[in-house]
Amino acid sequence: MQPAIDKTIMNKDKNDQSPRGTMTKQRRIGNFFLILVLSIGSLVMIIPFLWMLFTSFDWQARLNIPFPPRFWPEEFSTRTYTLAFSNIPMLKYIFNSLIISVGVILVSLFSAVMSGYAISKLKFKGAAIVLVLALSTMMIPFEMTMIPQYLLFNYLNLLDSYWAFYLPALNFAFGTFLAKSFIDQLPGTLREAAIIDGAGEIKVFWQIYLPLCIPILATMAILQFLAVWNDLLWPLLALNTPDKFTIQLGLALFSYNKTTPMPSIIMAATTVSLIPVVVTYLFLQRYIVESIALSGIKQ
Amino acid sequence: MASKTVSEHSGVSTKVKRKFFSSRDWAGYILSAPLIIGILGFAVYPMVAAFIMSFQRTANSLTGDWVGLRNYVYVIGDSLFWKAVYNTFYMGVLSVILGVSLSFILATLIHNVPWLRWKNFFKGVYFLPNVVSLVATSILFTLLFNPGQGGILNFFLGFFGVEPIGWFTDPSVARFSIVLMTLWGMLGYNTIIFIAALTSVPRDLYEAAEVDGANWFKKWFYITIPYLRPIIVFMVIMGTISAMKRFTDVWLIGGTAGNPAGSLMTAVLYIYRNAFLSSQMGVATAASYLLFIMILVLTVSLLLLNRRSNFD
């Protein structure tokens, strides 16, 4: 072994004289620490999820947090899930959330891509005003408009119905902005050529430009899905009948009104509520991350 | 049939010019109609209605008796409102400063990972809490942050000799616990945007600096940070706006009273209480206008601050 050590020491001395050699060695150590630090951070991010998952199977934690606290359930059981499903009609709520999400996505995406196209390519009289107006509504926080909006839907007798979600989706100003900047980059000659061939404006939009907008529509759909799925405040105001609750509202009210901690049952319910988004995230992770980055940079 | 007339005329632009609105204009209006209806119905109308309501005494309708500035006087004289504003700012400032600086460091670290596979892995992991709803996060953290020795975090800290902390039960700690929870949930969002921005910094700037003998810290401090300043300002503004609107987590954790001891009472929670618990819509809309003005002043002053330092 002795000669080997000597050799490495010699090598090290040699490397010290040539800057390139130390660079790579330094960099290798640096990379090691980089990965180490980031991995420890990742653990901090992941541990709450793991604790949630393990606790959700812990039969002894169905009423109170066991002492001493633990990660691994002492009495593994799936009955906690049965209890969660019997206490909270989760499937119903998830289904409701899906319906609302799909409706909001359809309404808001159509509104956004149509107006984005009109502003970008048709440049109708007043297009600039519409764009400025739309952009300035992005500055208005929802918390500001929620009271009149609630009273308006109350007046229209549309509270406790999903119209209270679909109608406000008409104003998806950020989507209009995204669509407009996307369509700006598409050539206008497509439209002119089609018009000369006798196609109508609406037909040009529908048959030529709409299919080209699919990438930006996918981005908008992802952003809207995450926003609608995770929203609590408006469902809390707009929905009264438990049958119509979204998953967030159902889960929140169950947690809000419970009298004992019920860790494993509430963790089981939370786990189930996360499945749709987390599965979507696992499959579309790259697109979701790209969409978020795009939306951040665009704003 | 609007589309039919459009198709008949639009080909011949000279003929249409006589009319004030060409068929192209009409098509534009038809396509923008949903957006315009949406803006008028769900942005302009509520803003105007809220403004009018803030001068009225109304219980549960859109009309009421005119009371002048009385709602505003009430809100401004209400110590609970100022407590709520203070708490909102306290949590907002902490979470923005910690969130932006931590995610910037994190983004720099991830950006420097030489292997694409690891890079994508870290991006994915750090972003994961961001797709989780605030409802789920709050429920999860009330259990993780359980006071006493039963909470897993207190248990873990016990190994280091730390006394059990009343994360969400001690009024002096609760706001900070909310900030920690927010950091966990939101860190990935800022990080992803920072990483996207970092990749847009031109490589030759770094290479030129290397030739001049700059070390990594100098490169980071003199190239990366100035280059990303617009993004940092954007983050601070967006973070401030969303922090001013804090509701879901404090409502779930502290209830409508913002417990413990009102330390989690926020401005939006104050609005919510007045509007939907005590049916004082006038007071609530007055408070919401005051909150809106605060957000506007903050945003504009952050933008001005940024512009002024641009001239330096």
Main pleated sheet of chain A: none
Q: How many helices of chain A in DSSP terms?
A: 14
Report the uncertain regions of chain B: 1-16
Determine the mean pLDDT of chain B. Answer: 87
Major β-sheet profile of chain B: 2 strands, antiparallel
Multimeric organization: heterodimer
CATH-defined superfamily of the largest domain in chain A: MetI-like
CATH architecture of the largest domain in chain B: Orthogonal Bundle
| Poorly predicted residue ranges of chain A | 1-21
Question: Strand content of the residues of chain B, in percent?
Answer: under 5%
Q: State the name of the first-level CATH class of the largest domain in chain B.
A: Mainly Alpha
Brief descriptors of the model:
heterodimer; A: mainly alpha; 2 domains; 76% helix; B: 312 residues; 2 strands; globular; disordered N terminus
Describe the structure.
The complex is a heterodimer of chains A (299) and B (312). Chain A is an all-alpha fold and 299 residues long. Chain A has 14 helices and no strands. Chain A has helices at residues 2-17, 19-56, 79-87, 90-122, 127-137, 142-155, 163-166, 173-184, 189-196, 201-212, 214-230, 233-238, 247-257, 263-298. In chain A, helix 2 packs across helix 14, helix 4 crosses helix 8 and helix 4 (90-122) crosses helix 13 (247-257). The model of chain A is unreliable at 1-21 (pLDDT under 50). Chain B folds into two domains: 2-53; 73-310, MetI-like fold. In chain B, 74% of the residues lie in helices and 1% in strands. In chain B, strand 1 (56-57) and strand 2 (65-66) form a beta hairpin. The longest helix of chain B is centred in the first third of the chain and has 33 residues, at 79-111. Classes of the chains: A mainly alpha (299), B mainly alpha (312). Chains A and B meet through helix 2, helix 4, helix 5, helix 6 and helix 10 of A and helix 1, helix 3, helix 5, helix 6 and helix 7 of B.
